[in-house]
Design a protein that fits this description.
With 432 residues, the protein is an alpha+beta fold. Helices cover 37% and strands 13% of the residues.
Length: 432
């Protein structure tokens, strides 16, 4: 890996392309199995790339956000301080799938969806392994929407767009994958290395007949979890440690015909296609998409039907009766911590836990997270919940912006019979 990295990053045109993409971005350098170097960091000069490679650097990663001074970033900064530092944010859609064939289809459909909204500044790059990144630069968005400064709509604005586009292409994505594999669900399961029942869903026809269909959510994601403040993506022309391939920019119109051989270091040339190209952008061309996505989020995700007052058991339900999603989340999370804390607090209260018990358990959980939630967030949520008298259920299991997105949805046999995590615990304690 080191020799490959040295040979690749020694190329002047590669150095220049990486530094060009690093402007106003927080940069993190990965050193193989040693992990990432210091954060925050920046790349200013082409020679910095090769000097890092000589120190063992294998890949370079950039923030989705644009900063006035990335070196002023710190984990202790409050939300308002981050907002003051942020210049803007780029939309980066990360297609994650075990099969490149299916990622190609998703990339093509996303490109067409963005074109439907007349967005011309769409760029694309191979992730370096089995997926693609599609990007829309911040300059394509309006300065404000619904009276809010757009630069402050991160990560919420970017996440809303990702969720909206994911739902927009889902039906067509399922159809195209099924057509590619001759409607053979077993073949699809084998290709993505999952049991057949995991990729199978059921639907009813108008006449009430139950039929099998593809559950594409089980193996292909347009990642929304990773859209979070200071999240990083692999930079264009950066190597991938596992595949030893290059995250190479491509013409998004050619995603369906992309072949991994194009990403072999020896074959890579710096092309005219730039990821997040900031030249010739029509300011505000992505306004309609952003507005539509924010409206859709309010209708579908922000106000779920399951938010209703529930009957609370007299005695608090012990942890041994918790569903798999709660048990997995309580082990600590790298991403999705704020969303899980929201689910956890509502879950515990619905299970009869007192505020003191909830506070103690939430603090214990936060210590297990690789990166702790900022004190301002933790204390603010605990204080808010303490003075909220009503008991509200956590989101239902099928609400994809929570358990599935956080990657803690690992259902057991009982999960198939319930719609909400609280229902799981109530049934389990009743059975025993």
């Amino acid at each position: 890996m080191i020799s490959t990295a040295l040979k690749h990053y020694k190329r002047k045109e590669i150095q220049e392309a990486i530094v060009r993409a690093a402007k106003d971005k927080e940069i993190a350098t990965r050193y193989g199995n040693r992990g990432f170097g210091k954060r925050p960091d920046i790349l200013q000069y082409p020679r910095d790339v090769f000097e890092s490679a000589k120190q063992g650097a294998t890949s370079f990663h950039a923030s989705e956000e644009l900063w006035n001074n990335p070196l002023q970033l710190d984990v202790s900064l409050a939300r308002k301080q981050l907002d003051n530092l942020r210049k803007g944010w780029d939309l980066v859609l990360d297609i994650d799938c075990a099969a490149l064939e299916y990622s190609r289809i998703a990339a093509d459909l996303l490109f067409k969806a963005l074109n439907y909204y007349k967005i011309k500044s769409v760029s694309c790059k191979f992730s370096g392994n089995k997926g693609f990144h599609l990007g829309v630069p911040f300059e394509a968005f309006p300065e404000e929407v619904a009276g809010q400064n757009t630069k402050l709509l991160f990560p919420d604005g970017a996440r809303a767009i990702a969720l909206y586009l994911r739902d927009m292409i889902k039906t067509e994505l399922e159809k195209k994958i099924m057509a590619l594999e001759g409607k053979d669900l077993d073949k699809i399961a084998k290709r993505v290395k999952l049991p057949a029942d995991k990729v199978t869903a059921y639907a009813k026809t108008k006449s009430g007949i139950k039929i099998k269909k593809l559950n594409v959510d089980a193996f292909l994601e347009i990642d929304t979890v990773l859209i979070s403040s200071r999240h990083l993506y692999r930079m264009p022309y950066s190597l991938h440690e596992k595949s030893l391939l290059v995250s190479v920019p491509i013409d998004p119109r050619t995603a369906l015909t992309f072949d991994k051989s194009q990403a072999k270091p020896a074959n890579v040339k710096v092309s005219d296609y730039r990821f997040l190209d900031r030249t010739n952008i029509r300011k505000g061309e992505a306004r309609q998409l952003l507005v539509q996505a924010l409206d859709y989020q309010v209708k579908v995700y922000v106000k779920p039907k399951e938010e209703r007052v529930v009957e609370v058991p007299e005695d608090a339900i012990p942890e041994k009766f918790f569903p798999p999603c709660m048990n997995l989340g309580l082990k600590g999370l790298k991403d999705g911590r704020k969303r899980f804390m929201f689910c956890l607090m509502n879950f515990l209260k619905s299970c009869g836990w007192s505020h003191e018990q909830i506070e103690q358990r939430v603090r214990k959980w936060n210590k297990k997270n690789p990166e702790h939630l900022r004190p301002s967030i933790l204390e603010g949520q605990l204080k808010y919940r303490k003075h909220r008298p009503e008991v509200i259920l956590p989101p239902n299991c099928q609400n994809l912006s929570y358990y599935s997105d956080i990657r803690i949805c690992k259902p057991d046999n009982l999960c198939k019979k319930i719609k909400n995590p609280v229902q799981y615990s109530k049934r389990k304690i009743k059975y025993l």
